[in-house]
Amino acid sequence: MKAEAISKLQDTIALEERYQLATYKKMPLVAERGEGVWIFTSDGEKYLDLYGGHAVAGTGHSHPHVVKAIQAQAERLMFYSNLVYSEARARAAEKLVSLAPAQLTKAFFCNSGTEANENAMRMARMFTGRENIITFSGGFHGRTADAISATFLGKYREIGKPNVPGHIEAEFGNIDSVRLLAQENVAAIMLEPIQSMAGVKTAPPEFFRKLRELCDERGIVLIFDEVQTGVGRTGGWFFAGSDAADGVVPDVVTLAKALGSGVPVGACLVNEKISAGIKENDLGTTFGGGMIAMAAVTATLEAIEQDGMLANVKTTEAYLRERLLELPAVVAVHGRGFLLGLEFSDKAAPIHKALLERKIITGTSSDPKVLRLLPPLCLKSAEVDLFVTKLKEAVSA
Ligand SMILES: Cc1ncc(COP(=O)(O)O)c(C=O)c1O
Fold first, then answer.
1. What is the full DSSP assignment across 95-130?
2. Ligand 1: residues whose CB is within 6 Å?
3. Is 285 helix (H, G, I), strand (E, B) or coil?
4. Residue to substitute in 114, 239, 374 for testing ligand 1 pocket (most ligand atoms within 8 angstroms of CB)
5. pLDDT value at position 220?
6. 163-194, pLDDT tens digit by residue?
7. Distance 245 CA to ligand 1 centre (A)
8. How far away, in angstroms, is 13 Cα from ligand 1 center?
């Protein structure tokens, strides 16, 4: 590494450390440029990104179609609020709804995953006139007051004290635990259909079918938090309506992360039953539905479509699973599509570190034995080969 590059890297790190709150445990690299599945650093290194900036870079880093759309929109109009109509917003809403399961007919745009979940819970309370929300141990739903109170994972709820009342914890995958708790005053059942942060935990398709039946029977709103699973990550546009959900479509799907390829945007997709009751001023946000974010949404969805990324996720997932069989240290592969948890017989953190030293970015999880992969949807088999080679080295290191 050249002296100039070292000082630039160290200067940047020192400046961030000095002027930013110390809220993140960071990797010792300065991301300068991205292209597809690659991140280029300020010291001239190249990293294979299997973490996708926390599942955000679905289309890959700086996809040309998305970049062009954002540039063109920025030159035309960067922002105007929801008090005017906008072609960019009209097109994004139409495109998103057209790809969603047929029952989900309306979109509400906001700025992040936590905000999408807050609005989904609010809609459920408005629709039912009830207050309580059932969520699941291991689920993560965000860091704002209501969403963090719905999060029964590790330290998060504690951070959010005092919690919003009326949040109830059920056991993921156990329909009897839900049935017992879904008594009076329950407005919604909300879940991550694949619990990512918990270590990529899945539930069988019949669990989703039984949840749907329970909600229908008791007039409860069913919400899928697809902030991670949505927008192609599991090899279909959404988990909702997929075979993994036994075809079940919830009343509300929440989205964020990959939806704008890095431009902050969240959304709720809502069925007719819920949307019929929503009136002026019931929900709102200044930046939600802004033109740059909307141009990014449309271009993101088009890029996934045009590049055949959904099919790529399926074939590359199958190839990756096959190659992982060569590694006895990987005792199980959890998840679906490009939301995968590699379970090791021992702690995953040293492997995460050894991979980073070999220029591969992966993610840890709250399960110490599980390493998470959330790569861009354009990851190909040649890059899988590179990863497997480096993983073998990392495991023996
Ligand atoms: C499943 C899930 N829901 C909600 C959120 C919160 O999203 P955001 O950080 O955009 O508020 C996250 C973030 O990691 C998430 O993984």
1. HHHHHS-TTEEEEEEESSHHHHHHHHHHHHHHHHS-
2. 112-114, 117, 140-142, 192, 196, 225, 227-228, 256
3. coil
4. 114
5. 98
6. 999 999 999 999 999 999 999 899 999 999 99
7. 20
8. 26
